[in-house]
Write a structure and sequence with these properties.
120 residues, mainly alpha, 4 helices
């Protein structure tokens, strides 16, 4: 194991990546809402938590808030509402805040551990 246990950073980093992908999908939906044949997209958080333990941040979000919508809607004909997409963006912002706070906590814990080990 190296000096910094990078596996501690994997979960919050993964969550931030998922949130960024969802933000991109929601932005694309608004941008293309009047494009004929465009299929609405969203990121399904449950696909990232399958087989995960309850200690993972994604699993906790899934347990608390339920499964997110499917990744894309191939049915076509679905009307994209700007208001709905903006509401989903706001929800995504909350997930971003949770993930970034989690990452900050992990970094603080690593710093504390390094300070304790250097003083002891």
């Amino acid at each position: 194991m190296g000096l910094i246990p990078t596996q501690l950073l994997n979960t919050p980093q993964k969550m931030l990546s998922i949130v960024a992908k969802r933000q991109e999908a929601l932005s694309d939906n608004i941008t293309n809402m009047h494009t004929p044949g465009y299929v609405r997209k969203d990121v399904d958080f449950s696909q990232y938590v399958n087989g995960a333990t309850s200690s993972n941040l994604e699993a906790k979000i899934n347990e608390k808030y339920g499964v997110s919508p499917a990744s894309s809607y191939a049915g076509g004909g679905e009307t994209i509402s700007t208001e709905d997409e903006l509401a989903k963006m706001q929800e995504n912002y909350i997930l971003y805040a949770m993930a970034s706070r989690n990452l900050s906590n992990v970094i603080t814990e690593i710093k504390t551990a390094m300070n304790v080990s250097s003083n002891g």
